[in-house]
Amino acid sequence: MTDIQASGASKTVRVELGARSYDILIGPGILARAGEEIARRAPGIRAAIVTDETVAPLYLARMQDVLRQAGIASSAIVMPAGEATKSLSCLGEVVDSVLADRLERGDTVIALGGGVIGDLAGFAAGIVRRGMRFIQIPTTLLAQVDSSVGGKTGINSPRGKNLIGVFYQPQLVLADTEVLSTLSPREFRAGYAEVVKYGLIDQPEFFEWLEQHHAAVFAGGPERVEAVARCCAAKAAVVAGDEQEHGNRALLNLGHTFGHALEAAANYDSARLVHGEGVAIGMALAHRFSAQLGLISGQDATRAVRHLQTVGLPTEISQIPGPRFTVDLLMDKIAQDKKVSKGKLTFILTRGLGQSFVARDISAEKVSEFLAGQLDAPA
Amino acid sequence: MTDIQASGASKTVRVELGARSYDILIGPGILARAGEEIARRAPGIRAAIVTDETVAPLYLARMQDVLRQAGIASSAIVMPAGEATKSLSCLGEVVDSVLADRLERGDTVIALGGGVIGDLAGFAAGIVRRGMRFIQIPTTLLAQVDSSVGGKTGINSPRGKNLIGVFYQPQLVLADTEVLSTLSPREFRAGYAEVVKYGLIDQPEFFEWLEQHHAAVFAGGPERVEAVARCCAAKAAVVAGDEQEHGNRALLNLGHTFGHALEAAANYDSARLVHGEGVAIGMALAHRFSAQLGLISGQDATRAVRHLQTVGLPTEISQIPGPRFTVDLLMDKIAQDKKVSKGKLTFILTRGLGQSFVARDISAEKVSEFLAGQLDAPA
Q1: Buried (b) or exposed (e) across B156-174, using 16+ Cβ within 10 A?
Q2: Could you give the percent of chain A with pLDDT greater than 70?
Q3: Do A100 and B130 touch (CB under 8 A)?
Q4: Which domain holds residue A276?
Q5: Beta-carbon neighbour count of residue A69 at 10 Å?
Q6: Does A249 participate in catalysis according to the annotation?
Q7: What pLDDT, on a 0 to 100 scale, did the predictor assign at position B341?
Q8: Same domain for A304 and A173
Q9: What is the rounded CA–CA span in Å between residue B111 and residue B101?
Q10: Helix, strand, or coil (residue B104)
Q11: Last residue of a domain, one of A177, A193, A208
């Protein structure tokens, strides 16, 4: 298990990856310390900030100020907000902007934003001059607990999400838990689905803690810092053991095979479904499917689903607004997902609350039967 | 030093990179064995061949035949020949073609061609699904002795060559020395400049061997296999010691700082100058500059230059056809090169024949004075 170091209201999680190890600093007001934290680790560098049109008006000027105060000159490129920014043409724009500034390999790209910006900026940092320094400043709960840690970067292809990218680790992650208070309730909730995921993977005691403390996590304060730190520590431990997703890292995909299929079936229309909501429904489906296969008791499956419902997350396919899905459509989307290996379907299933495992040999027929039952269920 | 294993007319060089180690098979007729060599290492995979309009008519059908006979189904994408293919839009085409075939991470991209195809296909293999299997089948001397070994992949930016890419190792390199007989004399000579480079870096005995055997290397036969194998072994040893170019790998850039500046000043117009010719002139300049700095005797510098001249390679800036260059233009191109670190100029200089070293602190003024003298020299 990865340690969590506490210092005042903040916590530090170390991702152990040998020469590529790095710290995640988590707490209120971390943004104001960004300049000194970066300058302390890499004096004399310059920075290119990649951000989006939602985040820029809120934090970009402050960010450039604190960098300047620490002696770090920075430029900024502001991309459109939203998933469409994870494209080859936007990647080209970011790369060109960094090269136009004549930044060198020791200089840094900073991602200031949510998962889209982190994935895009990290990919750019990984390929400019075959790899520059990279720093993540995630501004959404989803990015703080999931996408900013672990080094997965990338963009989407017209043929599927995240099909193009590199494994590329940041040198530092700065997670300011105060900035999460500017998120919409829907966006915070969507990120919270990934928080619950860590409990359901292999930490039943964390799941129980969330059942008791979820209101405080949503309200802010020390419980929020604690929750983010525990998620980062959990992800750090998995990543340290399996950096390039050949084995146990796949557990992090709990809820994601069903979730990605639902997002694809909804045409990635965020008015209908955002990623965290897809994961929430996906985790509910994974637990119900595990119950149907006799792996977990109906009681435990219901308990997992109920906590997601308590915080207002969707748990039924029928809760997705718009045209109904068919079994064929969902099965086609599942087959397109990159977690298909040599034609067999891989799912993360569970043997109990917080006892998930990788099941590599699931027959398409069983999945199809299960989904038919779910689609027939009343809303 | 990396071992060379001999087997019949062929030789094998192993690139030692821990879990990412791989073999380079060198010899006549290797192409005909490609299917069995690939299938033996990775049974059951599928392949996407990336090639260009020059190579496709010569070898593509044969390549797909030998793969089919070994049970490997393949698709092919044929790109335009030439440096302009190392672009973001061509990269997008290759990536999309591989994804369209629904290849998985364990399947392979095969680069069948020269350095341009190897760099482009390797980059694509490195980013599709965050890294697929990759096999190099280099068809030029330059690619066999240099670009196919070591894992540097990438494309050009309007702001400079090779500024975008990843370090990504192939799983196998198949260098058929017979296919080199279809190269034009100019192209073979250009590749030979990189062969001479290995001698001049740190193998004076190999340089002497080349002085004696260059005609046989050009004619084909065992000397050609021997030369390619010695170059691959030399490069493999450097790469194994410094995979990501933080230290001694920079020695491989002997002749390249001047060479790249000349290529850029000639607008990458291959009618005026191809890469190997730029490297030949660059190595001549590096030796003369070293002599001017009092590092090497004039006699040794002249001997290095004379061998390049013997095989018909250019060694003077004035031999480049077209408009004359100015010192300012060349200095500007040198400053743009990515081997500039924190504003200091880095050159590979030499203390004797085959005694090159990395000089990181060369003042722009000295370089500028030296180039002024070279530009004044008669053609």
Answers
A1: bbeebbbbbbbbbbbbbbb
A2: 96
A3: no
A4: 254-376
A5: 12
A6: yes
A7: 57
A8: no
A9: 16
A10: coil
A11: A177
Q: How far is B155 from chain A (nearest CA, A)?
A: 10
Identify whether residues B116 and B30 lie together within a single domain. yes
> What CATH number does residue A24 fall under?
3.40.50.1970
Q: Return d(Cα B316, Cα B281) in angstroms, integer.
A: 6
Residue A59: HSE in the Cβ half-sphere, 13 Å Cα cutoff: 27
Task: Please tell me the total count of domains within chain B.
Answer: 2
Quote ipTM for the complex.
0.90
In angstroms, the Cα distances linking B152 to A127, B12, B339 are 11, 21, 15
Q: Could you say which of A16, A36, A211, A245 is catalytic?
A: A245
Q: Is residue A53 a contact partner of residue A116, using CB atoms and an 8 Å limit?
A: no
Do B62 and B168 sit in the same domain of this protein?
A: yes
Say if residue B321 is exposed, middle or buried (CB neighbours under 10 Å; 0-12, 13-18, 19+).
exposed
A128, A140, A24: which is closest to A82 by C-alpha?
A140
Does some domain include residue A239? no
B339 is in an annotated binding site: no
A198-229: per-residue pLDDT in tens?
A: 999 999 999 999 999 999 999 998 999 999 99
State the best of A87, A104, A107, A127 to mutate against chain B, taking most chain B CBs within 10 Å: A127
Distance CA B147, CA B142 (A): 7
Contact: B338, A129; criterion CB under 8 Å: yes
Who has greater pLDDT, B284 or B247? B284
Give domain status of residue B99, yes or no.
Answer: yes
Q: Which of A156, A223, A253, A288 is catalytic?
A: A253
Residue B173 inside a domain? The answer is yes
Q: Indicate which CATH number applies to the domain containing A285.
A: 1.20.1090.10
B140: in domain: yes
User: In the listed set A122, A147, A177, which residue is the last one of a domain according to the structure?
Assistant: A177
Using an 8 Å CB-CB cutoff, list chain B residues near A88.
88, 91-92, 95
Say yes or no: A22 and A109 in one domain. Answer: yes
- Give burial (CB, 10 Å; 0-12/13-18/19+) of B336: middle
Q: Are residues A136 and A258 in the same domain?
A: no
Catalytic (active site) residue A307: no
The answer to whether residues B50 and B151 belong to one domain is yes
d(CA B278, CA B317): 9
Residues of chain A with pLDDT under 70: 1, 244-247, 337-343, 377-379
Element (H, E) at B204: helix B204-219
